[in-house]
Design a protein that fits this description.
Nucleotide-diphossugar_trans; Spore Coat Polysaccharide Biosynthesis Protein SpsA, Chain A; about 50% helix; 15 helices
Length: about 400
Amino acid sequence: MADFYQNGIVTTLHNLTDRPVEDLERELMSFSRLRPMSLVLPSLFSELEGPALSNIIDEVAQVPYLNEIVIGLDRADQSQYEFAQKFFSKLPQHHRILWNDGPRLRKLDEMLAEKGLSPTEMGKGRNVWYCYGYVLASGRAESVALHDCDIVTYDRSLLARLIYPVAHPGFNYVFGKGYYTRIAEQKMNGRVSRLLVTPLLRALKKVYGSLDFLEYLDSFRYPLSGEFSMRADALNDIRIPSDWGLEIGVLSEMKRNYATNRICQVDIADVYDHKHQPLSEADASAGLSKMSTDICKAIFRKLATQGEVFTTETFRTIKATYFRVALDFIETYHNDARMNGLELDRHSEEKAVELFAENIMNAGEHFLANPMETPFIPSWNRVISAVPDILDRLYEAVEADNSEFGDI
């Protein structure tokens, strides 16, 4: 059970009363007449065969207020796309699948690539970007929620609480970020948030002072959650990374485009568990090793756009400061876990911190060595300016795929 404490400069909407989901849904049904709602589900085909997604779809099928569900499907051939059509057919709501590996969307992507407007890296960011483009093209929603497809503890109250702040006609929020407790199997999870992001932000404050952007990021109780919602008109002008920096990138763009009183975070689940990434110490291109590097680069790039100067020496200072702060956090989390009867392996926690410290330097060196890098996917406003009929083309391609291989 949460308390009512407001931390930082972003409004926190707590779960104070365990309000019944049916009560939330009745309100959301009334909101939907003024603010139609969409759900975006970025998915790998492998998740259709995993332990989580079938239950997620069973739960979402009971949601009465959604006007549209947009599913981004990655790494699927034709037979797998046809399987996905059957898999998602149990959804009674209007829904469309973006077959990102299909010939129609590939052709569209190649056209954008020729103009330098296509995402340069495969991954969740690219998937989400195309899904958001389809939401703009369909025009069926004014409020949009997004969550991952690997949540093994999912129930539909998560979605109701996630979309409520941006769907409520009396609220002025443009963006809502989900947060939750990362406890599962008597263990404290969420290592990248606990042991990298928060200690790194605290270290950066020591080095650069309490910058507004650092205070903003440090206000989020779970900055790396894959669950967020926003008003549809906010989709036009955000530039997001295509790599693991997606969540930090989205938060950064919201801060760039809107005042903080239009941004909130909301407690969406008492229990949350999903697929865990390996630490991947021996492979910097995989697992938490790549994730940590991408996240550091996203933070450094944002600070640089605000005029902060980085050198090899400052990155060494940041690394040393981070390492000390992170070790102190391990002690804090250990004591918290013990008091709550949870397990916490201090040795594995310190191994993670050592890897993250190394990757802070790796990210810094990459940043300094690639000053012309443009890792952000262009905003849809820019793409529409260059290709005025792009949303029509995207809409027609998705409709054609779903008509040919689906049941519409």
